[in-house]
Amino acid sequence: MVGDYFYHESNIDGKCRDVRGNTYRRIFQQCIDFKRDYYEPYKTAQLGARGTEREDINRKVALLNEYYPHVDRFVSQHHITSQAKFRPTVLEEFCGHLLKNIPEIERLNLDFFNKGVFAGITLDRLGNAKIKTKDIDFCIGKKFDVTIEGSQYHLIIPVIAIECKTYIDKTMLSEAQFTAQKMKQGSPNVKVYCVAERNEIDVNEVPTKGRTPLDQLFIIRGVTTNPVSADAVFAFFTEIKSALEKLSQEVNRIELGGILPD
Fold first, then answer.
1. What are phi and psi of 228, to 5 degrees?
2. Under a CB-based contact definition with an 8 Å cutoff, are residues 112 and 138 in contact?
3. CB-based contact 57:224 (threshold 8 Å)
4. What CATH number was assigned to the domain covering residues 102-248?
5. Domain segments of the chain: what residues?
6. What is the C-alpha separation between 89 and 239, in angstroms, rounded?
7. What is the pLDDT along the chain (262 residues), one digit of tens a residue?
C-alpha cells in the first residue's frame, strides 16, 4: 500500500491553519469549508475508485473533472496566486490516485515521493560522499538505507519521475528537461515524464525524443475550457504502467556462438 501522496490536501491544510503570520488567515474559515464540502468528498471518491481497466481510469478522470470547477472558483474568488501552488497540487495528487492500483507498485514494494529523490553522488572537498537530491512533483521509487564509510544514508531511488504543469511553455519545457537530465545523471534507468493540462509550445518547437532527456510529454486538457481528456489520461496511465511492468520482465539475452574459440 502506497503511503501519503495527498499533496493537494497538504496545501489546503497549510492555508487552513489559523496561525500568526499565515498569509491565508483572511480566508481561514473558507479554506476549512472548501476542504469539508468539496475536497473530502473528492478524496473519498478517488480512494474508492480502484482498478486499472479503461472504465476505472474514466471514473477517476470524471471525478477530477467534477472537482476542478470548485478549485477554479475558489482560486478566483479568493485571489489565490500561482505562487501558492494550490491548483498545481491537484494534478500532482491525481497522479497518486491514477497510478495507485498498478500491481507492480505493490509487488515491487514501491512508494510515492516528491522530495529528496536521489540525483547522484559526489565527493566533497574533504573526500567525503555527498548525496545529491532533487524535489520532483511526483515520483515512484523505493527507499533504501545504505552505509558509506560508516555513515548511513536514506536514498530514494526513482523509477518514474513526473513533472506536473497546469500549462507548458518554452521556459517550463526547458525546466522539465533540466530536471530530467539531472534525474538521469543520478539514476540512468529512470523514466521521466511531463504531464500538463494545456500546451503553449509551438508544435515546431517540441523536441524529438532523441533530442530531449524527457521520455514523453502528455497534454491532457488542450485548452482551459475543455475537460480533462480521458483518452489522454489513459495514454499517460498506459505508458507508466508499461514502464513499471518492464522492470520485472526477465531479460532474455541472445545466445552467442562461434565468436570466440573453445
1. -60, 135
2. yes
3. no
4. 3.40.50
5. 1-87, 102-248
6. 21
7. 577 899 999 999 988 875 655 677 778 889 999 999 999 999 999 999 999 999 999 999 999 999 999 999 999 998 888 888 999 999 999 999 999 999 999 999 999 999 999 999 888 888 888 899 999 999 999 999 988 888 888 899 999 999 999 999 999 999 999 999 999 999 999 999 999 999 999 888 888 878 899 999 999 998 878 999 999 999 999 999 999 999 877 544 555 555 555 5
C-alpha cell at 222: 488542450
For residue 125, the tally of other CB atoms under 10 A from its CB is 6
b/e sequence 65-99, b meaning 16+ C-beta within 10 Å: eebbeebeebeeebebeeebbbbbbbbbbbbbbbb
State the DSSP string of 185-202: HH-TT-EEEEEEEEE-S-
Asked if 49 contacts 237 with a C-beta cutoff of 8 angstroms, the reply is no
Q: What beta strand segments (E) does the chain contain? A: 111-113, 117-123, 129-134, 138-148, 151-168, 191-199, 216-222
Q: Flag whether the pTM goes above 0.85.
A: yes
Question: Which three cell numbers, joined as nine digits, stand for 52?
Answer: 486499472
| C-alpha cell at position 17 | 491553519
Cβ proximity of 71 and 86 under 8 Å: yes
3-state secondary structure of 112: strand
Task: Specify the length of the chain in residues.
Answer: 262
| CA dist 198 → 13, 73, 75, 127 (Å) | 27, 19, 18, 46
